[in-house]
Amino acid sequence: MSLYKDYINEIEERKNEGLNPKPIDGAELLSEIITQIKDLNNEDRADSVKFFIYNTLPGTTPAAGAKAKFLKEIILGEEVVAEITPTYAFELLSHMKGGPSIEVLLDLALGNDAAIANEAAKVLKTQVFLYDADTARLKDAFDNGNAVAKDILESYAQAEFFTKLPAVAEEIKIVTYIAAEGDISTDLLSPGNQAHSRSDRELHGKCMITPEAQAEIQALQAQHPDASVMLIAEKGTMGVGSSRMSGVNNVALWTGKQASPYIPFVNIAPIVGGTNGISPIFLTTVDVTGGIGIDLKNWVKKTDAEGNVVRNENGDPILEEVYSVATGTVLTINTKTQKLYNGEQELIDISKALTPQKMEFIKAGGSYAIVFGKKIQTFAAQTLGINIPTVFAASKEISNDNQGLTAVEKIFNRNAVGSTPGKVLHAGSDVRVKVNIVGSQDTTGLMTSQELEAMAATVISPSVDGAYQSGCHTASVWDKKAQANIPKLMKFMNDFGLITARDPKGEYHAMTDVIHKVLNDITIDEWAIIIGGDSHTRMSKGVAFGADSGTVALALATGEASMPIPESVKVTFKGDMKQHMDFRDVVHATQSQMLQQFGGENVFQGRIIEVHIGTLLADQAFTFTDWTAEMKAKASICISQDETLIESLEIAKGRIQIMIDKGMENKNNVLQGLIDKANNRIEEIKSGAKPALTPDADAKYFAEVVIDLDIIDEPMIADPDVNNADVSKRYTHDTIRELSFYGNDKKVDLGFVGSCMVHKDDLKIVSQMLKNIEKKEGKVEFNAPLVVAAPTYNIIDELKAEGDWEMLQKYSGFEFSDALPKANARTEYENIMYLERPGCNLCMGNQEKAEKGDTVLATSTRLFQGRVVEDRDGKKGESLLASTPVVVLSAILGRMPNIEEYKAAVEGINLTKFAPVSTK
């Protein structure tokens, strides 16, 4: 059977699911379609023409190559297609976004037919996705006196690809839709359990919120055809949690507009709002799609006559509604006055959502076009030997006299690209920066590869020190979806130049190590900037930013990222940590004490947390930086002492060497290069030439938080508070409770030790607790299931060498097998310990889950509704987050322990070696 017949069969199957034909990305299928177009008597010719025009993916997909070649033949008159004139062929090329289409346009523009060359030049002047090979052809032609090349370069220098675009409308009419009350996680917009379908945009769009919500949005569109639907997080923040381009893609699919009539299911210009604004990563993704994100501030804290915040019986601020955004409210965004209106009534200033840079993104249909456009303009001006004309909004550069630099300001200044030479930049400045390390994970990786194809990128930027593609998010179950997606992803990324977790040729065994742990190891310079496709890209060395798949693609392709330098909040510690406390308790207490110190206001939100935990090694310090995603921080910086940093770098070198020994090195010797850089950094520290990064003494912070270790006397639990009468207070990560709150009768249905929040010492704690209980009771019995998933294989190897793995095996009722990985997700659990394959496991929620309605106690990061555990009739699932010893003991008891039971269980175990630099 032909590929075309297979495609038609697939179309029929998709019809049954209410889906349109899947966009074509394969050259073989499109070649068949082209053959049928050429055959005027072919019964499938009419459909083939439609598929060719409207259903072929652009960029560097193999299908795009076949399409561009055929369009070139039509333009040259080598082929005649009645439905596609040469003029129409040029239009189709103009929508193909680079790669093969640019190669064809350059062939035509630099060819001998003057009329065709001029038409090709007109199209080229609208294009921005050009790479070195493309610009080199233009430069060579210009140097050889080609007039068309000169004409194109002059257009690029004036940035006509941007200036000739239609202006942004002065008034944008919107109709509101409250998607939920309280914080809206990206899980609501793009559920983790549907990760397998993210690259199939139409199919994935079916999972946004609920079918009922989708119908309500469509009804609003029908009632208000001249308005855009704005999705709103009422009394909450929009887009918290994972960094999902798929979440914004879904919002755009249902509420935005089609980017091109010839590119199916790629929509742009979504409009979103939140009472407390938009999560930083989500807002970046909105910019990628040329959308608008508004901090509504439609609820404010009630104050008394003296200006003091009025609180309820629980101590929470009472909120008052300033204006209504109830579903169906018609509002107007005025891009000139930069205000939000209800009719003639001015509601709020929204200038932060409409900065000059954001207005450029809106006009261009997304931030990529601006990033690449600036590069093309710079190239053209340099080639022509002229100054770069002022077209784009100048980057804001803030330099405050007699003010030192925070740690993140120092990193941004060191890595800045294109800013005023010699000018010291402070928070608020807009900066292009060099990216040192990039991470792509497997549930967003397919989208990243699509983004790279769409922007016509074929090879990683040589300026990137190292990049890694993980397999951790799909490690739990090697099911048909994973088998179909992961090898394809790994081959693409391996060819692109990344170190990959699985060798497409099968020469080394699959690695499922948690991406954040690998990135934490391959970051070998605390002055580095890291971009990763996950909100938990928060390294203990350097400053790391979780990002959407598109921003990851941009970093891989260009080696750069653009963003304002964030403000910082300084976190220091005083007092002494008690022996029975785990460092996870310090992490939770930091969030709790911060909220108490600032009257419930989260000063971390959208800012950098500069945490001074200088004596903690990289693995342990990552537990803190990792959690800062839940604190809603933009990123975090760990200030380390010289000796500690050197020890962390030595550990990292050893782990990178293991990757080399397993065959993961690539042709560019990236891994060996990282070891060499680590050796150089260690020598700089030892010699005193360049000590470990520290902020200046006179640096300015948005706020300073001092954590009192003396008052942390009980394990601290992050509670989703699923039954809180105020819906907006549920699933927020902000409810932190002491263990004694639960008495000793809180039933636990399942315990989970795993995710990126744990390291080797956590697994050693599990082993030691089993030994302690065995010694006291004679054996260990579990009254609830305990799932244990090491973050990396290295940890398992080290545990085996140190004797701990044997103890875990002794009490396990299930141990993973790489030779026979699970093909189906577990739906029921016995009261045993499960030793699962290294990876994310339950924390992701896309493969393994707890049983519906369970109460789960976990070391993971997510407590969102439906993430780790879904609800069942009459019982809400809840995922409480705690330290490893609390989770283990709870699984053994089948309930939360009391404080006496806990202290007895951890006696003699060195839970942490943390000794912070005292602020006394």
UniProtKB/TrEMBL annotation:
One of its GO terms (cellular component) is cytosol. It comes from Algoriella xinjiangensis. Keywords: Iron, Iron-sulfur, Metal-binding. Residues 176-405 form the Aconitase B swivel domain. The keyword Transport does not apply. Residues 6-162 form the Aconitase B HEAT-like domain. One of its GO terms (biological process) is tricarboxylic acid cycle. The lineage of its organism: Bacteria, Pseudomonadati, Bacteroidota, Flavobacteriia, Flavobacteriales. InterPro entries: Acnase/IPM_dHydase_lsu_aba_1/3, Acoase/IPM_deHydtase_lsu_aba, Aconitase/3IPM_dehydase_swvl, Aconitase/IPM_isomerase, Aconitase_4Fe-4S_dom, Aconitase_B_HEAT-like_dom, Aconitase_B_HEAT-like_dom_sf, Aconitase_B_swivel. GO terms for molecular function: 2-methylisocitrate dehydratase activity; 4 iron, 4 sulfur cluster binding; aconitate hydratase activity; metal ion binding. Residues 409-894 form the Aconitase/3-isopropylmalate dehydratase large subunit alpha/beta/alpha domain. This is Aconitate hydratase 2 / 2-methylisocitrate dehydratase. Coiled coil: none annotated. It holds the Pfam family Aconitase_2_N. Gene3D superfamilies: Aconitase, Domain 2, Aconitase, domain 3, Aconitase, domain 4, Aconitate B, HEAT-like domain.
